[in-house]
Amino acid sequence: MKVKSIQPRKQRKALFNYRSYQRSKLLSTRLADFLREEYGIKKLPLRVGDQVRVLGGEFKDFEGEVIEVMKNQRAQVKECVFDKNDGTQYHPSLHVSKLIITKFGDERKMDPWRARIIERKALYGFGTEELKAPKKEKGEKL
User: Fold this and answer.
1) From CA 37, how far away is CA 94, in angstroms rounded?
2) How many CA atoms lie within 13 A of 89 on its CB side?
3) Which residues neighbour 22 within 8 Å (Cβ) at sequence distance 6 or greater?
4) Which of 24, 61, 63, 95 has its CA 20 to 30 A from that of 80?
5) What is the CATH architecture assignment of 8-107?
6) What is the structure's pLDDT at 16?
7) Quick one: pLDDT at residue 120?
8) What pLDDT score does 78 carry?
9) Residue 50: CA atoms inside 13 Å, Cβ hemisphere, count?
10) Series of mean pLDDT values for 10-residue runs along the chain (142 residues)
């Protein structure tokens, strides 16, 4: 998934031509600490309806609902609003790396697509020490 070119136009073209499974990996964002401990995973793809907290920029520490996720690794949050001079409002797009998921879209019922991802990732989660390979120390041969 690494783009070999340094030209911005080729990088943008590659981003828009990724397949859906590659793009969903790029659009994944971190989970809040309490969700990380509960589910045993670090990242999940961002979806419309998720509650997120903004980590950087002008809207730092804002919390709100995702209303749109775009192909160019950006998302719009309902509570982040700019007022224009003519009185209208618009939602600026925020990069997904500046967001943390604090609550899933529909807490009452987990959709099967996301539940399968959580089960698969939790199986090889970051908290299980027995699944990791033993560390090799200096001078020691395995």
Assistant:
1) 26
2) 8
3) 1
4) 24
5) Roll (2.30)
6) 84
7) 87
8) 93
9) 27
10) 85 86 86 90 90 93 93 91 93 94 82 85 64 60 60
Strand 99-103 to 51-54 pairing: antiparallel
Q: What is the pLDDT of residue 131?
A: 47
Tell me how far apart the alpha carbons of residues 42 and 115 are, in angstroms, rounded to a whole number: 14
Q: Which two tokens stand for residue 48?
A: 């419309």
DSSP-assigned beta bridge partners for residue 65: 51
110 closest CA partner among 47, 56, 68, 67 = 47
Region class of 62: left (phi > 0), else alpha (psi between -120 and 50), else beta: beta
pTM of full prediction above 0.70: yes
Instruction: State how beta strands 93-95 and 74-77 pair.
Output: antiparallel
For the record, the structure tokens of 130 come out as 């027995």
